[in-house]
Amino acid sequence: MRKSVCALVCAAAALAAPALQAAPEAVSGATVKANLQGGAMPENVDAVTSASVVPETLRQKVVPNGFTRDGNAKRVLFVVGDPRHESVEWDLVNTAAKHFMDKGLEVEIRDLYKIGFNPVLPLESFFHAKDGFGPAPKDVAVEQLIVSAADYIVFCYPNWHDSPNAITKGYMERVFSKQFAYRDTEKGLEGLLKDKGIFVIMNAGWVGMGRGSVGDGIPQKAGEKSNPIWDSYMTAYKTVWDDTAGFWGVKNLGQFVNDRTPGNLDADYAEKLQKLRNDLKASLDRNFHLK
Ligand SMILES: Cc1cc2nc3c(=O)[nH]c(=O)nc-3n(C[C@H](O)[C@H](O)[C@H](O)COP(=O)(O)O)c2cc1C
Questions:
Q1: Cβ-contact 206, 198 below 8 angstroms
Q2: How many whole angstroms separate alpha carbon 193 and alpha carbon 181?
């Protein structure tokens, strides 16, 4: 009997499975074997994973003050796509949220994993996203209300394969739909979210060594101000976000990318983390003109 390509591929994958299980350790820089079964973290996770783990004693618990109905304070919406609250990405989110609140702004955080946001644009609402036909799906309508209330939208995600990770990207695809975020006019597309600004906070494994945005790479040669590899990554990300901002009619306020995460077992972890937090706060002060 002839077997379909899919059946053959699936059978091959099943045979290869034990080998594949060992692969992440081989490529990730993790030091010793982690528990590869299920989602439970091994007790000595700091030592075994290549993901960032902020030690418990240094983790911040930040409660957003929320958007009020009236008042003049600017409103910052954080759209966060990161399943691990002990990550450096979440530490950056908490640092930024607290900083904005300290400066008198209002903050809302949409924790996409926690609210179970479905990032997949299904056939049933494809034409809503593409053309603005029909009512927004209920979950999208809720998010659109929150986005409408915000002055700033800060997209926060770890770098997974050089783009906003799936849950964050799905939020963009479903929530920023046509007739909500942009529309056709006789002169072409018009962004509808004018007077808003967007910003990105992304932690990364390796994008050429640096922290910040274009021009903030660590020089690799004498005479360099930044470094060309870092700058090429940053320019690529900036180009894409500039384009998206143009589409939606918002201002692209910039990006804070970090690929100098303290090693989980660094003796001076606390100092390095504090430096990272300070660098982020300085970037926010600059890009949002905070006083
Ligand atoms: C599925 C996956 C894909 C990744 N792809 C990249 C990548 O393309 N570039 C990169 O710099 N880091 C990549 N990383 C590494 C993460 O960005 C890195 O672990 C980062 O420190 C995560 O930040 P966090 O620890 O704050 O979550 C990837 C991680 C995962 C889990």
A1: no
A2: 6
SS3 of residue 289 by DSSP: coil
Q: Where are the alpha helices (DSSP H) in 150-202?
A: 166-175
3-class DSSP state for residue 291?
Answer: coil
Residues 129-166: pLDDT tens digits? 999 999 999 999 999 999 999 999 999 999 999 999 99
Block residue for tokens 């990405």: 89
Q: From residue 182, how far is each of 130, 166, 179, 271 by CA, in Å?
A: 10, 22, 5, 44
- Nearest atom (ligand 1) to Cα of 50: 19
Determine the atom of ligand 1 nearest the C-alpha atom of 162: 8
* 189, containing H or E segment: strand 188-191
Q: Please say whether the beta carbons of 156 and 78 come within 8 A.
A: yes
| pTM as predicted | 0.89
Pocket test for ligand 1, best of 27, 41, 161, 257 (most atoms within 8 A of CB): 161
Q: Using 50, 70 and 90 to split pLDDT, how confident is the model at 238?
A: very high
The angle formed by the CA atoms of residues 71, 74 and 77, to the nearest 5 degrees, is 120
SS3 163: strand
Q: Tokens 């594949």 appear where?
A: 20
